[in-house]
Amino acid sequence: MLLIHCPYCEEDRSELEFRWAGEAHVVRPENIAAISDEEFAEFFFLRNNEKGLTYERWRHIHGCGRFFNAARDTVSDRFLVTYKAGLPKQPVPVAEKFAAIAEEKSVETWEQTEGDAR
Amino acid sequence: MAELGSTIATRSLPLSGAHGGSAAVRLEPAAPASRISLRVRAEDVSALSAALGVDLPVKPKTSAFANGRTALWLGPDEWLVIDEGESGLMTAAANSGALHSATDVSHRNTAILVSGKGAADAINAGCAQDLSLDVFPVGACSRTLFGKVEIVLLRTAEDAFRVEVWRSFSDYAFGLLSEGARDAAL
User: Fold this and answer.
1) A34 to chain B nearest CA, in Å?
2) What would the mean pLDDT of B114-139 be, rounded to a whole number?
3) Does pTM surpass 0.90?
4) Distance (Å, rounded) from C-alpha A21 to C-alpha A11?
5) Do the Cβ atoms of A64 and B60 come within 8 Å?
6) pLDDT per position as a tens digit, B59-72
7) Domains, chain B
8) Which pLDDT score is estimated for A118?
């Protein structure tokens, strides 16, 4: 079971209390009526789905109920840092980053096992 | 009110007749109480505290008790206020003169009192939180999960907890607590 640090409750809680809430730091356009359909689709539908370090919104739905932001490594599933909603993108602590990269190398991905198969 | 005679429906409590527990844990349905779910902005907390007669705690996982009322911190701007005596919570909140949202949830919730030396173990049967006295001292409270249902947990004494649960889930919560109580006595 993952433990996730809630920045509002100020302690680690079980993952069962949390819900994922999509990509973080998606900025709503200033004048949404003026943008083109393509720009709207980019804002509204399209997400980066990055492999590795991603910034996500999470909600402590069965605890304090608050939304917050988290930097998570999608390969190792490790939460690198969590911070309150409304704050700018927080840098990931260097030590955490290296730990995540080291862990990532040990994970067998499709590319490693199947990617070069002819 | 008009006399309704024998046609009036008798109101039975959600957990009336429920019994469980073990040598280590005592389980009992709590007496009916009035409760409000309260949302207040930080700048209006003192006004609501004065109106309700209990200081709304602003530190996570803490509660306050005064004048028969308990205020439980649920979130940065959210509290559950329980009054075990005469009600008047809604009126008191309305008379505060400050902007707030109060919802009467007296009949949505019911409570189970869990006590005895195995009380924490019985709750840990379905709740992942650390209930040791260092981390969850007397007066600590938290909204959390118990098995599949959401509860609000309040530690009323070193070996006693109040489990606030929605009434339609109370049967499940009581059943799971009974199993936890049996395990705690082994």
Assistant:
1) 34
2) 96
3) no
4) 20
5) yes
6) 999 999 998 999 99
7) 18-32+107-186 (3.30.1360.120), 34-105 (3.30.70.1520)
8) 46
A64 in B contact zone (CB under 8 Å): yes
Which residue's structure tokens are 């902005």? B41
Cα separations in angstroms, B179 against B123, B135, B184:
10, 25, 9
**E-strand spans in A11-101?**
11-14, 19-23, 53-59, 67-73, 79-84
The answer to whether B60 faces chain A, any CB pair under 8 Å, is yes
Q: Where are the domains of chain A?
A: 3-107
Quick: pLDDT tens for B137-179. 999 999 999 999 999 999 999 999 999 999 999 999 999 999 9
Q: What is the layout of strands, in order, in the sheet containing B78-83?
A: B63-66, B69-75, B78-83, B34-40, B100-104
Chain A residue with minimum CA distance to B127: A14
**B58 alpha carbon, distance to own chain's centre:** 18
Q: Tell whether domain A3-107 is in CATH 3.10.450.50.
A: no
